[in-house]
């Protein structure tokens, strides 16, 4: 019924599959709008707001500790992909280079192409979150957010900004693109935080 790419989870995997989600073996591309084409030579990453403004280059990121990650990926449109393998820089390692004002409690992710998504500091600053430039051992393809994306495994994947190019630190909640359009402000998949009750 669900077709050959979407399967009901194995019982031993079912505790990893959030309610209302189906497993996919492929890796669908979910993008609103065009795919930006950004080279590593011109790629820049800025931090501003309640942090000392700073611009990072590709080489700056490559000089930070590089880690491998295996993480499950949950799209709010009901597909999940388990055990995605990535390489990149842990958010906690990156943040060693950022001077954040202690009043910052919220973060807006900014991207080439104009997409934004908001995240609370406590959901952002976590050991398991990372900037990814490699997917299954290959340079991250442009359609999946290359050259660099954020991955936040514990929230729905719209919180994992592709083509990320900046972080704006805030002392209050602001809403990103999908959040302004009715998606949940936090987006925790096991709690099925799909939509904002203000709209639905
Ligand atoms: N810049 C940007 N990041 C984005 C999106 C987008 O449209 N633009 N889509 C989000 C959504 S809804 C999902 S499910 C994931 C999809 O990532 P994928 O295309 O690599 O599967 O990226 C997220 N990050
Ligand atoms: Mo999504």
Folded structure, characterized:
The chain is mainly beta. The mean pLDDT is 95. A hairpin with a 4-residue loop joins strand 7 and strand 8 (116-120). The strands form two sheets. Strands 1, 2, 5, 6, 9, 10 and 11 form a seven-stranded mixed β-sheet that branches. It has a single domain (41-81, 90-199), classed as Oxidoreductase, molybdopterin-binding domain (Sulfite Oxidase, Chain A, domain 2). It contains four helices and twelve strands. The two termini are 28 Å apart. The longest helix is centred in the first third of the chain and has 5 residues, at 58-62. The chain has helices spanning 58-62, 91-94, 121-124, 177-180; strands at 6-7, 22-24, 44-49, 54-57, 67-74, 79-90, 106-111, 116-120, 130-135, 138-139, 149-151, 164-170. The protein is globular and about 45 Å long. Helix content is 8%, strand content 32%. 32% of the residues are buried. The structure holds the ligand Nc1nc2c(c(=O)[nH]1)N[C@H]1C(S)=C(S)[C@@H](COP(=O)(O)O)O[C@H]1N2 and molybdenum atom. Residues 27-32, 75, 111, 113, 115, 144-145, 157-158, 160-163 line the site of the ligand Nc1nc2c(c(=O)[nH]1)N[C@H]1C(S)=C(S)[C@@H](COP(=O)(O)O)O[C@H]1N2.
CATH class: Alpha Beta
CATH superfamily: Oxidoreductase, molybdopterin-binding domain
Q: What name does CATH use for the topology?
A: Sulfite Oxidase, Chain A, domain 2
- Which CATH architecture would you pick? Alpha-Beta Complex
Which structural class best describes the helix and strand composition? Answer: mainly beta
What compounds sit in this structure? ligand MTE, molybdenum atom
Order of helices and strands: EEEEHEEHEEHEEEEH
Shape: globular
Cα separation of the termini: 28 Å
Q: How much β-strand is present in the residues?
A: 25-35%
Which runs of at least 5 residues are low in confidence (pLDDT < 50)? none
Biggest sheet architecture:
7 strands, mixed
The value of Rg in angstroms is: 17 Å
Mean pLDDT: 95
Whole-number total of structural domains: 1
């Amino acid at each position: 019924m669900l077709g050959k790419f979407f399967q009901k989870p194995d019982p031993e995997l079912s505790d990893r599959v959030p309610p209302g989600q189906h497993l996919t073996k492929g890796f669908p591309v979910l993008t609103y709008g065009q795919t930006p084409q950004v080279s590593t030579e011109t790629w820049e990453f800025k931090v501003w707001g309640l942090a000392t403004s700073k611009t990072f280059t590709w080489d700056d990121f490559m000089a930070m500790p590089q880690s491998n990650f295996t993480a499950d990926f949950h799209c709010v449109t009901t597909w999940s992909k388990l055990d995605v393998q990535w390489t990149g820089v842990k958010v906690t390692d990156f943040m060693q280079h950022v001077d954040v004002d202690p009043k910052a409690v919220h973060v807006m992710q900014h991207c080439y192409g104009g997409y934004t998504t908001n995240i609370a500091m406590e959901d952002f600053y976590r050991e398991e979150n990372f900037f990814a430039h490699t997917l299954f051992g290959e340079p991250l393809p442009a359609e999946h957010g290359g050259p660099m994306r954020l991955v936040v495994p514990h929230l729905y994947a719209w919180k994992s900004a592709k083509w990320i190019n900046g972080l704006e630190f805030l002392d209050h909640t602001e809403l990103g693109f999908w959040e302004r359009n009715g998606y949940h402000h936090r987006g925790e998949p096991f709690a099925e935080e799909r939509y904002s009750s203000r709209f639905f």
